[in-house]
Design brief:
The protein has 583 residues and is α/β, with parallel strands linked by helices. It contains 20 helices and 23 strands.
């Protein structure tokens, strides 16, 4: 058997996966074990989990595939350094990172001293890993494939054609030009300082008007061939070191923009300052600029490739608003974005690219995201026993309901009664989204539910929308676009006549970032939503991640801890149900 361990390390969202004979066995982000958002070190605990899930030891691994190649475009890097003379801090940082990548074998030996690795280490170019993660596990036989992010291996975007076993890279955008850097700089300018806060700009954008689009076109120039370039007067990343700092929560990033950006758009918003209409308009204008750039590229690729399928990856693949508008703005008719489109997913791309290179045939499609740890009934019972006094003090008594239909019926009635439910089932999700196994669920019909959730649990900005999980077979009746969206990566318009029925998941522009739930992919979650539909006539529930300003919960103990310290009403922990008498 061929066991391939895929890694994303020394970068935000470090992760590991295991592919055995061309089939994904396990995948997880290190943050879920370390309990530090976007953990950026060596993913030792995620590796240990993947090996355990596969029933193997490190000595059994045939290949280790890493989604970074320090040698890629080395000549370009040297030429750029000589020509532009970036700061010594920036150069030193890049050299330190390169040394880390070259020391992977030592890291593995230190982390697993009793099972020495004797296989082959492969460094796979960053954007090739993204492209592989988009196409090689997609349902498509032929598709355009695009990767766009901040940077990796001296480029910020790559695109090409996937066909059968072949994956051809046709073009790139090179450092220092980057749509990801553009969007991140605007995110920082708008006062959102943390790594990954770009989704807040997406959530804010519908409240504004694109009055500053002409200014955005000065910042980003889009060519007819689909390439794009930044006006570097507005950016610092190419000449100075821009640090990210971990301080117990999500990492915070430094200023990516120069004073010239404030001269163009006005003063940047401090993180604690109120949001004004001009901030909303800038968010909307930045989103419009991003869409203008990517849709230009997509149209060029469609004309070149003549296929109606497109697969997306890279951090910008998480721009679910743009993904949802893709069908209306381009000729493509099917889009695939895997569950971890960002850097974590590069681990999967690296592993499947090595499987492809070594002659392995495509035989796996990622149609669900449940690749993380799961916990047997005994582990749940042990967690409950360990917190028995606190559970009793909270007014709860665990009740075991072994009949799945009865459990789903009880939970559906609680949601319909306005209760907030923690839903912990099966294997943890791969990627940043809770998709029905580590979720907090609520009634989408209640107009006040966003405020209730923010007050009781999430404590986040009021403008940010919550997402609906909808039965796949019912999606066309509620959304204007009919498509498979298993990973919550596309935003579609809710049908106008249905919007008033589900105000808690309907954004200000009438859209919803839906997850379609197929019975084959998640039978228990599908049954729960079906039970809620039988109670209410609405075939969806509000779904948000099971956490409180922390990584999504992984273990039963973490789920219990989150339940007990917040004002959640009900916890479904496997077959066990805990209901508070008072909240």
């Amino acid at each position: 058997m061929v066991h391939i361990l895929g890694l994303n390390a020394y970068h935000g969202d470090s992760s590991a996966c295991l592919v055995t004979d061309g089939v994904l066995v396990a995948a997880a982000e290190e943050e879920r074990f370390r309990r530090i958002k976007h953990w950026a070190g060596f993913p030792a605990q995620a590796i240990a989990y993947c090996l355990e899930a596969g029933g193997i030891a490190l000595k059994d691994v045939t290949h280790v595939a890493i989604n970074r190649d320090p040698r890629a475009r080395l000549g370009r890097k040297i030429a750029y350094a000589l020509l532009h003379r970036p700061s010594l801090g920036l150069v030193a940082e890049r050299l330190r990172n390169a040394r880390k990548w070259r020391g992977i074998e030592t890291e593995l030996d230190n982390a697993f001293p009793d099972a020495r690795f004797s296989g082959t280490v492969h460094h796979v170019e960053h954007h090739l890993c993204h492209l592989a993660s988009a196409f090689l596990i997609s349902p498509f036989e032929r598709a355009s494939v695009v990767s766009i992010d901040g940077f990796g291996d001296f480029s910020s975007a790559a695109w090409g054609l996937g066909q059968g076993q072949a994956l051809t890279v046709e073009g790139r955008v090179m450092f220092p030009h980057s749509l990801g850097i553009f969007y991140e700089a605007i995110t920082r300018y708008l006062g959102f300082p943390h790594y990954g806060d770009e989704y807040k700009v997406m959530g804010l954008a519908p409240y504004g008007v694109p009055t500053r689009l002409d200014d955005m076109r000065r910042i980003v120039r889009v060519a007819r061939d689909g390439t794009f370039a930044l006006d570097l007067r507005y950016f610092r990343h190419h000449t100075e070191r821009v640090n990210y700092e971990w301080s117990g929560g999500a990492p915070s990033g430094g200023r990516l923009f120069t004073p010239a950006l404030e001269e163009l758009l006005g003063p940047a918003r401090p993180p604690d300052a109120p949001l004004e209409d001009r901030h909303r308009d800038i968010a909307r204008s930045a989103q419009a600029m991003f869409e203008e750039a990517v849709f230009t590229l997509y149209r060029v690729l469609h004309g070149r490739h003549g296929t109606d399928n497109i697969a997306l990856a890279g951090g910008c693949g998480f721009n679910s608003v743009a993904n949802g508008r893709l069908y209306g703005q381009t000729p493509y008719r099917r889009c695939y974005v895997q569950a971890a489109a960002g850097d974590a997913g590069g681990a999967v791309g690296a592993a499947f690219e090595i499987w492809r290179r070594t002659g392995g045939a495509r035989r796996f499609v990622m149609d669900h995201a449940h690749w993380g740890p799961e916990y047997a009934d005994e582990a749940v019972r042990a967690a409950l026993a360990g917190r028995a006094r606190e559970i009793e003090a909270s007014g709860c008594r665990p009740e075991r309901i072994s009949d799945e239909g009865a459990l789903c019926g009880r939970v559906a009635r609680a949601i319909a009664d306005g209760k907030i439910v923690g839903w912990f089932q099966g294997r943890m999700e791969w990627g940043p989204r809770a998709l029905g196994n580590r979720s907090i669920l609520a009634d989408p019909r209640r107009a006040d539910m966003k405020d209730v959730l923010n007050r009781k649990i999430k404590r986040r900005e009021g403008f940010r929308p919550f997402a609906p999980s909808v039965l796949r077979e019912e999606a066309p009746s509620w959304f204007e676009t009919d498509d498979d969206v298993p990973f919550m990566t596309q935003v579609f318009q809710i049908r106008p006549e249905k919007r008033e029925r589900i105000p808690a998941v309907c954004h200000v522009d009438g859209s919803g970032r839906l997850q379609t739930v197929a019975r084959s992919a998640n039978p228990r979650y599908h049954r729960l939503i079906s039970s809620f539909a039988a109670e209410t006539g609405v075939p969806m529930v509000l779904n948000t991640s099971f956490n409180e300003n922390e990584p999504v919960v992984c273990t039963p103990e973490q789920a219990l801890d989150c339940f007990l310290r917040t004002k959640m009403d009900v916890l479904a922990l496997g077959d066990y149900l805990l209901t508070r008498t008072e909240t």
